[in-house]
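Supplementary Data S3. Sequence and structure tokens for construct A.
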Amino acid sequence: MTDYDVTQSYMQDISLGTSIIAVSFKGGVVLGADSRTSSGSYVANRVQDKITPLADTVYLCRSGSASDTQAIAGYVQYWIAEHQAEKNAPVDVSTAANLAMQLSYNNKNNLQAGLIIAGDAHGQTSVSSASKLCRHAQLLQNLCSRERQQQAQHHKVATAAQPRVS
């Protein structure tokens, strides 16, 4: 008979991450997500729906803080409803993704959210990652900031090189 270590059955790795995916193909988009919500190693909810409809044909896959992502989804749903009422047309996936990205990026220090926006609008399937869009916005902001610093430095050098008229 072999020895059985009882602690080994309790010492297994616990997965703490969320799995979300969106795949586009010629006929549409397939979205997938796990359903567990955890708080540390405690599973708080085993049947959480992490795919949220933003419009009739646009959906949001949520990962990160449940309250943060639910709040983002609520605001984006509201803005999309306003947008569709003004335009009297369905919203594009890119517009929905940009709304989610703007909200996420402007609150990046206060939110823990990873988002995928996907759907089929006007016969065009599309998948966008708000997190990826936020990284692009951050890179663009850094480049613009560096360019402004270089211009200011160039202006200082040019001003210092000019002779003073008395």
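Construct B, processed identically:
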Amino acid sequence: MMTGLITAVGLSFHNFPEGIAVYLASLKGLRFGVPLAIAISLHNLPEGVAVALPIYGATSDKWQAVKFAFISGLFEPLGVICSSFFLKPLLTETLVQNMLASVAGIMTFLSLYELLPLSIKHCKRKKATFSVFLGMFVTAAVLGLLKHYENQYQDL
């Protein structure tokens, strides 16, 4: 249960600045905001599973699992609402980048401190370690491709 709760808290902190990012991208135009919102929505699916599975495994209660996954997901629209009403005059591009970098550090710590030992326990060390590095490689490859195509389309 503790792993699910820690993951829920970490993802809540992760989702809040994502909401801010969607809000800021939307201020630049729907051309930026809508694709970012779709991309973030798609990656929120495995995040919900990451929260729900440990809670369901500990409690065998589907509603508890769904409730915590849903609550952690609500921090993203909360980020949008807070940005639009309260934070708009304070938000700078540097502040948002620093917030996102901090959240990335928190999520990396949670992954290595909580989730990796748990996966080693259930899947054996080699498989778990390979999966972590495969995930890092895929993420780096996707970011590289996005940067490549972003540079190509800036000229248009």
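The chain is about 90% helix and 0% strand. The helical segments are 2-28, 30-59, 62-73, 75-87, 93-123, 125-154.
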